[in-house]
Amino acid sequence: xxxxxxxxxxxxxxxxxxxxxxxxxxxxxxxxxxxxxxxxxxxxxxxxxxxxxxxxxxxxxxxxxxxxxxxxxxxxxxxxxxxxxxxxxxxxxxxxxxxxxxxxxxxxxxxxxxxxxxxxxxxxxxxxxxxxxxxxxxxxxxxxxxxxxxxxxxxxx
Length: 157
Prior knowledge:
Helix content: 10-25%
Number of domains: 2
CATH topology of the largest domain: Jelly Rolls
Mean pLDDT: 80
Structural class: alpha+beta
């Protein structure tokens, strides 16, 4: 009985090993299937340091936090984080001077985007009501291919 069971296990192992080998030969060996010729695409041109890691604006107090930034083009994304110590209404406003099209998104302390603000007017503004304590993320982006300076205001309301 044990000998028969051992043979079945060995047989199954051979089948699995054969399938893995066949997939590797046909190009399914873990390659993502992307373009394998040529160099990888260049990184976005922005060098402001907050495209992938949020710039911390600290802890929200009784007064507004105001920061100036610049969207260099339509692939630049600026990330900011702010910490809230207790339940509050979280206000965010994005303003700029030229005719560019900027937008912003706010993510909750779980990293889930809860508000996307991208209208045809400026400033772009929103209030998240009664947010609990935690760290929130504000993402600023552009749909314009030219550099656009902006002012981001975050505060309690």
